[in-house]
């Protein structure tokens, strides 16, 4: 490294002291990564406008463009209904898991009790339990609910909700634990001195202050439900199928017999991905801030 | 920490949960009057005919309501894994659909679970009697006549489809009757990027059927009594011939290592292959829209195995498994009488004929089958193959054997694409599979 | 679990007290003096209850199933399936594909995690700097991660076919693509596709971590005249230790348990080269109906993962918030 280059670096970093990469390198990194991301995405979009035969033959540039696939998918598969169910289930899960996570994390961070460390470790450990292990026994538990409690769980949207809610909790709680750790306790103490109860503190002070963390927890929970195929495929009925299951089934049904409807597979993939992408774009700003709290 | 608060929260949660539960659907109970009852039917999705299937469902709903006053609710599955997960979870929990449409090769597993209604004379009579059905289709209803659970619903025999124009151009009279003849014909038909035979080596369902077929023709049913015969030389020979189409005879497009059934069909439809084996009448709509629309015909596959000029002693002239769908009634169902009425409806002559016309599968109803045969010349060879269909071993061990046979092909694909499959690789896997299979067969025997 | 037990215990002796905010990547703020003994523990009951019903009870059931001969014959009366003791475990280790699959899964997870680290770090560094269009770039980087896994799998399976788009593109620059979905290359196909989908997670955590480096630190470094490389190695990376560790743990666990991607890409039975644990378990459970055996395989693999994980967690104290090494 020559003295001249160091001087350049210094001058540049004078412009933006927080910058890490030299501008040239930064541009190169961004160019490469954006290409890496967008090339396949562009292909999905283009392929959704191509006739099936062209997708199958590996065309990258379509010889003709058609909107047929986009029109056809709504009648080929119950995509609209699936999207509705997914949005409802994942939306509810996102909100509830964030709220439950902040309550749980608050206790874990601010209080001490027997089993606290175990619980914290379990939060990480729980994420390594394979879904395939729990599928059958969980179904057994749900299926026995009508016998012992007189309520039907399997096939209902709320059955799916509590499943995803629970699966989302460990990571959501983890995010909130790390976030709350980074939050100063002085405000809470002031609140207590002002006569607020612990719950009052949680509601009036912790909740508003941890909004960015809540958003992160909510978004990750949303995505968990949106992505799941394994549990949704056995816990739902035709009327409660999620978009993931609908798309998965559509993809699988293209295996046998005639030429697969590749174009429609692509366009329905775009439709299923769009809500999550939009969601992320809206909350992108908070996402980074929300993870910041505890990740020091 | 107050206990009161804890209880309050727990209570609130319980209330919330039970309130939410009321939102869930529930089906009505039984009774003499079927009005208000809902029958749940789980069946395979006809992905080639989505609109037609919707119309068919509506038709059956209307007919069934007219007949019994009860409603039918359909649920469809699109893949074997979806089907099996559903059945398992229903079996373990004792709740779910009343009627399942299951594949013939999955019926032994379903039977072994003991979770489906056994059909005695009374039940058979309720669905029109055994005589209503094409005899060969009953072969996969149960291990023997006294223990049956499956009522045939559709028949999908496997056949050979060939390009008549290419055959004529090469001076070949008609479809081959031995596999060696097929290979010889295919060699004549292979030139440039056109191949004599299309194959679907990467299909999840086809490969094991070839092995079963050749082994049968060599005289090995794979499971004989309570003995698995996977390590018998005939099985290795079957794989050798099956892979040899590509590696030795060179009558198959090398790309076929990546083909599933749909891809092979597409290749045949584009006129790039002269024959395609182990296919069904289900390809008719695809072919009808293709360049070969007016130049294809079906035929049963050859019955003399590769390397033989006549059927070996003890060999069985098997070409197609007894293939198609059976209907089974769940033993946990509280409306089995109603379920049987549904089965009666959809296996009636009129409905079978209609179903066959719409979806291109063959009727299992004998009268409907005759009507279809006389109406459509194209179907005659397929019906003929169906009549000669041979059942796969009816043992609870079959799923394991079928998966193992498929797996051997999956692992051989890399070798296939590079030009040769190491024989010792196949042999080693066969030895392993023999052990697994024998254990599974023993277990099945012990469980009966 | 003693989560709601009213009995209290003094805080662990190792808990440091007071403020330890270092200049760079300050350590997590321990609750020290404010961590109370009397707390509204009931706040944890809804979450705890859910975990109990949806995870713990099924998990215990799964443990029970793993020591019974639960299969197609006994499924209907699953509670009465014959007790086998450790029979399933012995079978899984001695005859099944378990060991091979464990090895594959570990190799796949570690490799994928290792590959995503430089990508995620580079992206975080680049997106951290100020420039026009930064918000857009930050959003674009997230796309692969938010695409549902089955979408990623389906699209890549179609694109990686022998006549697929990938080979078309490779062919146009004179490279024969060959088979991506069969044979020896499948393992790398899986690693690459998962890397493509997973690196933004590392990026996200690192980007968040970068925010916590104070402006005064950056300025001090600038005054010292350090090169960007020196700054990266001596200041930035050490301060990212926490987020990177978290990313490594969570990402590795997710790769280990990723069933959807290999299943959609390769189906089941999968080529031996990609017969990772989730596929092997799926096959035993839902294709050959050996539920007891499958449960034993799952439990065995879980233990294999948990042992190093727990040792690791203890060592870095990431779980307790008492991390020591963060104050660079």
TrEMBL record, chain B:
Pfam families named in the record: SBP_bac_1
Domain of life: Bacteria
Keyword Membrane belongs to the record: no
UniProt KW keywords: Signal
Gene3D superfamilies: Periplasmic binding protein-like II
Species for this entry: Pseudonocardia xinjiangensis
Protein name: Extracellular solute-binding protein
Signal sequence interval, chain numbering: 1-20
């Amino acid at each position: 490294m020559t003295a001249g280059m160091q001087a350049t670096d210094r001058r540049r970093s004078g412009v933006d002291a927080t910058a890490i990469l030299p501008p040239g390198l930064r541009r190169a990194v961004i160019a490469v990564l954006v290409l890496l991301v967008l090339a396949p995405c562009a292909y999905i979009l283009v392929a959704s406008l191509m006739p099936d035969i062209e997708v199958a033959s590996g065309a990258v540039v379509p010889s003709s463009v058609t909107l047929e696939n986009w029109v056809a998918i709504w009648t080929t598969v119950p995509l609209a209904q699936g999207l509705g169910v997914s949005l409802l289930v994942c939306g509810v899960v996102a909100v509830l898991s964030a709220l439950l996570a902040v309550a749980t994390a608050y206790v874990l961070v601010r209080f001490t009790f027997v089993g606290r460390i175990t619980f914290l470790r379990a939060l990480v450990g729980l994420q390594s339990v394979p879904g395939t292990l729990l599928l059958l026994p969980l179904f057994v538990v749900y299926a026995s609910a009508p016998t012992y409690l007189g309520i039907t769980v399997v096939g209902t949207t709320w059955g799916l909700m509590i499943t995803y809610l629970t699966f989302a909790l460990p990571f959501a709680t983890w995010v909130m634990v790390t976030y709350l750790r980074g939050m100063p306790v002085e405000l809470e103490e002031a609140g207590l001195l002002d006569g607020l109860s612990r719950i009052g503190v949680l509601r009036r002070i912790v909740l508003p202050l941890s909004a960015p963390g809540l958003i992160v927890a909510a978004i990750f929970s949303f995505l968990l439900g949106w992505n799941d195929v394994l549990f949704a495929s056995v816990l739902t009925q035709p009327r409660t199928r999620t978009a993931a299951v609908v798309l998965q089934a559509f993809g699988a049904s293209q295996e046998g017999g005639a030429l697969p409807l590749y174009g429609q597979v692509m366009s329905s993939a775009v439709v299923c991905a769009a809500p999550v992408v939009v969601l992320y774009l809206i909350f992108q700003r908070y996402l980074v801030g929300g993870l910041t709290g505890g990740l020091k | 920490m107050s206990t009161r608060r804890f209880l309050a929260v727990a209570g609130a949660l319980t209330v919330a949960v039970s309130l939410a539960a009321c939102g869930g659907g529930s089906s009505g109970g039984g009774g003499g009057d079927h009005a208000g009852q809902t029958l749940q039917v789980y069946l395979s999705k006809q992905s080639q005919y989505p609109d037609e299937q919707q119309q068919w469902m509506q038709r059956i709903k209307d007919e069934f309501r007219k007949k019994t006053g009860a409603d039918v609710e359909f649920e469809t599955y699109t893949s074997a894994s979806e089907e099996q997960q559903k059945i398992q979870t229903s079996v373990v929990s004792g709740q779910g659909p009343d009627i399942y449409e299951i594949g013939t090769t999955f019926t032994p597993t379903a039977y072994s679970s003991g979770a489906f209604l056994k059909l005695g004379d009374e039940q058979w009579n309720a669905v029109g009697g055994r005589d209503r059905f094409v005899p060969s289709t009953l072969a996969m209803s149960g291990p023997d006549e006294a223990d049956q659970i499956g009522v045939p619903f559709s028949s999908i025999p496997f056949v050979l489809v060939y390009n008549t124009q290419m055959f004529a151009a090469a001076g070949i009279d008609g479809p081959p009757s031995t596999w060696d003849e097929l290979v010889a014909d295919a060699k004549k038909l292979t030139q440039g990027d056109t191949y004599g035979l299309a194959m679907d080596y990467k299909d999840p369902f086809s490969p094991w059927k070839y092995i079963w077929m050749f082994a049968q023709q060599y005289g090995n049913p794979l499971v004989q009594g309570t003995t698995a015969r996977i390590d018998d030389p005939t099985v290795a020979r079957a794989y050798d011939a099956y892979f040899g189409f590509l590696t030795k005879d060179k009558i198959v497009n090398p790309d076929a290592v990546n083909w599933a059934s749909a891809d092979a069909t597409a290749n045949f439809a584009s006129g790039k292959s002269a024959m395609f084996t182990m296919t069904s009448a289900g390809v008719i709509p695809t072919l009808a829209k293709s360049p070969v629309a007016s130049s294809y015909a079906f035929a049963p596959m050859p019955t003399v195995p590769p390397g033989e000029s006549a059927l070996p002693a003890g060999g069985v002239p098997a070409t197609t498994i007894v293939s198609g769908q059976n209907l089974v009634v769940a033993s946990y169902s509280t409306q089995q009488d109603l379920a049987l009425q549904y089965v009666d409806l959809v296996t009636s002559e009129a409905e079978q004929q209609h179903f066959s016309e719409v979806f291109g599968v063959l009727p299992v109803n004998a009268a409907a089958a005759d009507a279809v045969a006389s109406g459509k010349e194209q179907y005659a060879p397929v019906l003929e193959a169906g009549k000669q269909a041979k059942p796969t071993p009816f043992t609870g061990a079959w799923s394991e054997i079928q998966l193992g046979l498929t797996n051997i092909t999956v692992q051989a694909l890399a070798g296939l694409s590079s030009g040769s499959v190491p024989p010792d690789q196949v042999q080693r896997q066969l030895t392993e599979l023999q052990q697994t299979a024998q254990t599974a067969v023993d277990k099945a025997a012990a469980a009966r | 679990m003693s989560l709601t037990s009213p009995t209290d215990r003094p805080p662990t002796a190792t808990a440091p007290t007071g403020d330890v905010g270092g200049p760079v990547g300050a350590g997590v703020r321990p609750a020290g003096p404010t961590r109370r003994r009397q707390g509204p523990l009931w706040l944890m009951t809804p979450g705890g209850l859910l975990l109990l019903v949806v995870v713990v009870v099924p998990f215990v059931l799964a443990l029970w199933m793993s020591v019974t001969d639960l299969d197609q014959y006994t499924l209907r009366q699953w509670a009465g399936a014959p007790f086998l003791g450790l029979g399933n475990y012995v079978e899984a280790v001695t005859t099944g594909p378990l060991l091979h699959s464990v090895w594959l899964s570990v190799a796949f997870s570690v490799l994928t995690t290792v590959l995503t680290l430089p990508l995620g770090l580079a992206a975080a560094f680049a997106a951290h700097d100020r420039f026009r269009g930064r918000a857009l770039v930050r959003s674009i980087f997230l796309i692969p991660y938010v695409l549902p896994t089955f979408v990623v799998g389906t699209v890549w399976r179609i694109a990686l076919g022998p006549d697929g788009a990938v080979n078309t593109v490779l062919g146009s620059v004179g490279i024969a693509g060959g088979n991506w979905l069969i044979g020896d290359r499948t393992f790398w196909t899986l690693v690459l596709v998962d890397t493509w989908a997973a690196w933004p997670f590392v990026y996200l955590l690192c980007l968040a971590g970068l925010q916590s480096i104070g402006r005064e630190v950056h300025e001090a470094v600038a005054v010292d005249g350090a090169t960007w490389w020196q700054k990266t190695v001596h200041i930035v990376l050490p301060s990212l230790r926490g987020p990177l560790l978290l990313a490594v743990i969570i990402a590795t666990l997710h790769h280990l348990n990723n069933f959807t991607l290999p299943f959609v890409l390769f189906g089941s039975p999968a080529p031996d080269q990609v017969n990772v644990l989730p596929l092997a378990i799926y096959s035993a459970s839902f294709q050959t109906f050996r539920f007891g055996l499958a449960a034993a395989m799952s439990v065995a693999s879980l233990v294999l993962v948990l042992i190093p994980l727990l040792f690791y967690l203890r060592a870095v104290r990431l779980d307790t918030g008492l991390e020591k090494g963060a104050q660079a």
